[in-house]
Input
Amino acid sequence: MTVHFTITRLRALIVAAAVVAAVLGASFTGLVPIAASSGHLAPIGWFLHWTMRNAVRTQSLAVENPSGLALTDRGLIRRGAGHFATGCAPCHGAPGLLQSPVVLSMTPPPPRLEDRVGDWRDRELFWVVRHGVKYTGMPAWPTQKRDDEVWAEVAFLRALPEMSAETYARLALGGEEPDGAVGNDELPAADAVLESALAECARCHGRAGLGQGPRGAFPVIAGQSADYLFATLKAFAKGERKSGFMQPPARRYGTETLRRLADHFSSRPAGEALGALSGDGLVAAEDLLEEGRRIATEGVPSRKIPACESCHGHAGRARNPHYPWITGQPRWYLSTHLRLWREEKRGGTAYAHVMAETVDGITEEQIEAVSAWYASQPLPASPVSAAEQR
Output
């Protein structure tokens, strides 16, 4: 009997040691699948979520709503609104604001809270907001000593499912209360959303559309036609034009806000840059610039490449406002996007196929030449004219 017990125990120890060795070996080799891009297998995802729900249910049992607390109190809801816009909406979205493709690529992706808060008790919402959840990206409240703030956030979450985009903008984005004399309670909210969107755009492009930081670090969008900018923003929002920088902010805002952004930057004169970018191509050799000029004005018939100016010059833009101006744009930007077109990685508006077909046979040398020439040209002196926008 004793011998049998010892052998069984020894076998168990051997199996346990083998399992530990396998786990440590997998960790050491770096073959553990930790990439968020791969997601969880469905059974694993279900198990982790089930475990989390059970933990929250049990560990929140000691939480009680404070005496006299009314989660429907408007002041309490408003106190939670600003933090939601700053700390929660970037991941969970908000009324009128979609979630960014960046956060939707997380594992697990953050849920839309309007759809989920009804599944949780008050005490459970309090516990999650206060303590956060490990390994999900859900942070704890910045301090564990302000339960009153956490309850304000719970009150806001309770109001969220029935909240309109206009109400959210007034509560969380600094929009004004509706003025009865004006008779339009949506305008202040729309302005608040636009201001939020402009602040996002300005981080890279500046409010004037000329780009932040070192000159030439960003493409100039000031003075492009409103039709082109609007179509481009919609293409980013739909993922039809690829960009990890641009898809997230464009995806967050509705059609009306995107249109207003396009109108804003279209009305800004690129000439404010005073030709600052026009020297970008002048560092190139004269023969390279001359070759670029020929491609831009004459094309490359042997490779079935038409003259770039036939679309991007004044006549082309007057014919179709969805063709952007490209004179004076940074050299790196022009060459990068020509390569993306050639490699079929660019995408864009309804006219994207025109460029894809045009640059199919372009060589690396030709890309460098035409990019250098366009970068050496001055920026437009004023916003796109009314004639060009028709």
Summary: Residues 342 and 360 are 5 Å apart (CA to CA). The chain has a mean pLDDT of 85.
